[in-house]
Amino acid sequence: MAEMGRYCKAYTAKDLAAFEGWQPDLQQLRPAEPQGDDAASEPATRETLADDDVLFLHEDFIVTDGIYHDENIVFKNVDEAWKAFCTDQLAFAVPEDVAQLPVP
Fold first, then answer.
1. Model-wide pTM > 0.85
2. How many domains does the structure of the chain reveal?
3. Domain of residue 19, residue span
């Protein structure tokens, strides 16, 4: 069963790609949702990220394509440079009230 973290925040792929070391694992992208007449067909494999695609930055600084902490992990190269980028450039911070919650 998919696992939820305590906190995640949505960012566009363009915002995350501003990090010099951004190298997403595109094989971990969720399949594209079928649209219109194709709604009954199989979801298509995605091989690229568009600038406006929404990804989720979690409290442990990993990035997923979806809200679940343990699925579709597209970036997990967490180091001090990435953490600094997230906090300084993206203003990412876990709210105090959330940070005090027990880890699920």
1. yes
2. 1
3. 1-27+49-104
